[in-house]
Amino acid sequence: MTGPADGATAAAPANRPITSRRARRAATAGAAVGVTSAVASGAGSLVAAAYFARRVLTPDRQRPDDVVVRAAAAHTVTLTATPETIVPGRYGLWIDNGFGHVRVGDIMRVDATRGTVERELLAVDRGYLAPGPARWNAYFHGSPPDVSIGARTEHVTYAGELGAMPAWVVRPQAGTDDVGRWAVLVHGRGARREETIRAMPPLLAHGWTCLVPSYRNDEGVPAGPDSRYNLGLSEWRDIEAALRHAVAHGAREVLLVGWSMGGAIALQLLDRSSLAGLVSRVVLDGPVIDWGDVLAHHARGHRLPRHVGSLARVMMRQRWGHRLVGVREGVDLAKTDWVSRADELHHRILLIHSVDDEFVPVGPSRELARVRPDLVTFEEWTVARHCTEWNTDPERWERLVADFAAG
């Protein structure tokens, strides 16, 4: 509606009726336009909210190349400069449509004029490195643990709620005193199991058998009933099934490690699983402590009006919105807010998070550490982007995890 100061000359005083036919037609037309605009605005908000929610909940089946190899030499590789490729640390590249893999190290030179960055070439694990498209790999490793770190790896399956789920089991070297200590490593949203390999050396060194499970909607495993992520609210059941496998094979104590959404899954398991009592400690790296905060962050990044982001949350939760969003099981983000639910936590947590995380803001991690200092040890990083704290400072990361695992 237009305020009096903007359109007083177009309307009759409030205490006088509109008597002319032309005036009545104008008033009727104005009302119709207002109603039509309101309906269109409401429908547009509904469509925008549904689209935003689906983007959050839908797995990315295709992973397009996102960087270009400009040149390759014996010990260096030159790439297009992107927000990821100009960050210090160790990373990887998928080449040949994902069939090849390369590991890169320190930044040697940045050419702002050409928009390129030259990095140390550590190894070509497989494939042929040549100029052309590639895909950035924040995991650093690009193969199972036996190939990536030389650790003997058992390829197993366990019985999940939706069917057989593949997993890796990596045992510490022979002679370990306690074979009942198992670490269950949970990768993030849309990630691969290779993401977890970075954590294995300090855990294996302290006698933890490492189990890396899959969960619904991973590549090559059974999808959920709606082929959507539930942001940890259903995925935790797949990790619980993995814990049952560990118990059946001798596990008496469990250490959970979760990256990003894997952290959200771990927290749901601690809250809901009858096996939570087996868990003695938890490591969270760049975790989603509050999905509501993450969605609000991305809504702002996409310049969505605040009410559209709020409507997306309602549609995820309420039955009337499930069909529009594409879910069968409601996604209640209030259940994922562990700052509000902090008094329900009972496990020791090592929480690692970078202030420069562009995908999952650090704020809820800081706040959880503030309200539960008795349980949460918070280690703050800088420079690292999402879940790449190890990449930028592997020595510090492994020392922290080793000390926590040894305690």
TrEMBL record:
Top-level lineage group: Bacteria
Annotated TM spans: 26-53
One annotated GO molecular function: hydrolase activity
Domain AB hydrolase-1: 184-375
Region (Disordered): 1-21
Biased composition range(s): Low complexity: 1-14
Pfam annotation, one family: Abhydrolase_6
Keyword terms, alphabetized: Hydrolase, Membrane, Transmembrane, Transmembrane helix
Protein name: Alpha/beta fold hydrolase
Species name: Fodinibacter luteus
